[in-house]
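Minutes, methods subgroup
Present: GH (chair), OT, SY

1. OT presented the first of two proteins processed in the latest run. Sequence and structure tokens recorded below as shown on screen.
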Amino acid sequence: MTRRKKGRLILLLSIIILVFTGCSSKSKDEEGALPKEVKIGIIRVPNDKQVAISQKYFDEFFKDKGIKTKFMFFDSGVAANKALSSNSIDFAEMGYTNGVVALATDIPAELIWIHEVLGTNEALVTPKDSSITDIKQLKGKKIATPFSSTSHFSLLQALKLAGIEKEVTLLDMETNDIVAAWERGDLDAAYTWEPTLSTLKETGNVLIDSETLANKGFMTVNIDLVNAEFSKKYPELVQEYVKALNKGVEYYNENPDGAAKGAATELGIETNDALTQMQGTTWLMMNEQVSPDYLGTEATPGKFHQVFKDTAEFLAEQKSISNVPSDEDINHFINTTYIEKAMEK
């Protein structure tokens, strides 16, 4: 080989190495690139997420990485599921019944957190000027609730226990519509959550609440879902997200008055009202989330998996979903990996 040919060969090899090195670097950059913004769906409930927002815990885990957080209110899990389906949000907060709907309708998401176990913050209410003092007296009456919600599930269980589940007229209404219909005198009863519940209680009486039903074996919870595409690309950000929520629970446990004040400011409600709502629910730290009584672990699923399955069967009976997810699908949908990884750090 002549010196000239040898020089050309070296130059060619150098170009090839540079091209492939460049491609490799580009791939690593794309893989390691973080989103500029994380879109987080929220509901108007003073819980661990509102505390985390008010104490700027999400900023601790995202802002330092150059990631903005955008919080978006949703009036119901139905609307949040639509946003997940259209890839408009990365995280969504909702009642777990809408989590069942998400899985049954193939919305690409994972259940990653229980915000609270519902108690006195959801209830069945009748007008004070009515003569109804017992659930059995609702026979033949009109009762409103948002369908496919935790309130819907609890209402049907209460009616079933009273033996009148087929002898009432159920009306599917959003919470704002329930208040309007209540004020017009169009309803005999309504099962709903805060802050709508407090509005109805000003002129109404509680017949039964979700705490009483939980004691009878019908636990209901609010949950958080993550967009599956997001969690696949950014699993470490999901771990940071649950750590922010856990800090919200921790702050509430140590300083309930401060937590209520912060959440109340975020929601524009009175601090006492926020504290009352918070005390009507049960919040879980990371170690409690993955305990056998709730989510369990990837290796050993907890009791909530059976609650989820039972609810799916119930919603299928009510024609709210067309198929019941398998145990394998439920185990895949409830992903505790992020909490377990976060606890290792």
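2. SY then presented the second protein from the same run.
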Amino acid sequence: MTSESTLTAPLENGFASDALLDPMVSKAIALIWHEATLLDAKNYVAWEALWTPGGKYVIPIDPDTDDFESGLNMIYDDARMRRMRVTRLTEGYSMSAVASARTARTISRFTVTANDGECVTLRSAQIIVGFKREKHLLLAADLEHRISFVDGEPRLDLKVVRLVNSEGAVTASGFLL
């Protein structure tokens, strides 16, 4: 876990990121790290339970778009599509998930872009290292998470994964990003 002193370290422009000390933001970051732990453990059923019913999981091709409905996406999942994806990954229907890569992911560089008291939106960076068949795979992405608080508990309402190589060839990974 990141220490409080790391979160309050001043940025190069002198801006102190006190927004990261807000209790809702701390819970949102804890949820994002918990999500990463579940994904590395391939506990997709528990991952699916982290979402709001209307939540969206998006991996756009265009790294600059916010119009996910009309743009081209690698993934644009609502609750029904997440359910189908988890079924494929856990019930042996996906060839890429058979003997899928072991992963270790790191999420850092958090910035708060919105906090209205009911939802917190954060941007961060993610590095995933996968290992399968004696080969390493490295993926890097900018993340955006919108965390909604339902009865005081944080839930994923939006997750956007902007791969740094989204416009190039991306091989099937057999795991969720």
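Chair's summary of item 2: The chain has one domain: 17-163.
Next meeting: continue with the remaining queue.
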